[in-house]
Amino acid sequence: MSATLSEATPASFVRHPIRLTLNGQARELHVLPWTTLLDLLREQLDLVGSKKGCDHGQCGACTVLRDGKRINACLTLAVMCDGAELTTIEGLANGDQLHPMQQAFIKHDAFQCGYCTPGQICSAVGLANEGRAQTGAQISELMSGNLCRCGAYNNIRDAIEEALPLCQQGGDQ
């Protein structure tokens, strides 16, 4: 007796359709239920700016924006993003015009090896969207979920402090 494909395939192996807006473009994708957003971005969509630093939500290297709020892509299942608007580091610039936060990171040399930089910048844009940080100390506290092994924290804080007013005036995503 032969089983049909639907009888032989466990439900967990069925790809689920999701629709989302990714860096300004509408996308319809089919993903396995256990696929993380980070794996979807890096392995299936070739958006490799977000990094897999710890894969446990402890370093922030995978930070992206979901509906303008920062999230750890390694802890978010892709199916949870159905209907969401996602922005990765690749989607922050407007053509050749860098996002104000990207410009500030360059100006303040807010990176060394650069591994954490995409997550730092996306998190900083999310921080600007939140509108909670008013001082350097608040920026440091609210960015504490993003680690920099090279120790560029002072430059990162200075870059964010400079870019916050520009982002809050409409230069953000």
Note down, in words, how this protein is organized.
The protein is an alpha+beta fold. The chain has two domains: 78 residues, Roll (Ubiquitin-like (UB roll)), CATH 3.10.20.30; 72 residues, Orthogonal Bundle (DNA polymerase, domain 1), CATH 1.10.150.120. It is 35% helix and 14% strand. The protein has six helices and five strands. A five-stranded mixed sheet has the order 2-1-5-3-4, with helices on one face. α3 packs antiparallel against α6 and α4 packs across α6. The longest helix is centred in the last third of the chain and has 19 residues. The chain is elongated and about 60 Å long. It starts with a helix and ends with a helix. The mean pLDDT is 93.
Strand and helix layout:
Blueprint: H1 5-8, E1 16-22, E2 25-31, H2 37-44, E3 63-66, E4 69-72, E5 85-87, H3 100-107, H4 117-130, H5 136-142, H6 153-171
Parallel strand pairs: 1-5
Antiparallel strand pairs: 1-2, 3-4, 3-5
Protein name: (2Fe-2S)-binding protein
Domain 2Fe-2S ferredoxin-type: 16-92
Pfam family, one: Fer2_2
Q: Tell me, rounded to a whole number, the average pLDDT.
A: 93
Described by the principal axes of the CA atoms, the overall outline is: elongated
CATH architectural arrangement of the largest domain? Roll
Q: Which spans have pLDDT < 50 for at least 5 consecutive residues?
A: none
How far the N terminus sits from the C terminus, by CA atoms, comes to: 56 Å
Q: For the CA atoms, what is the radius of gyration?
A: 18 Å
By DSSP, the count of extended strands is 5
The computed structural class is alpha+beta
Pfam families: Fer2, Fer2_2
Keywords: Iron, Metal-binding, Oxidoreductase
Protein name: (2Fe-2S)-binding protein
Domain 2Fe-2S ferredoxin-type: 16-92
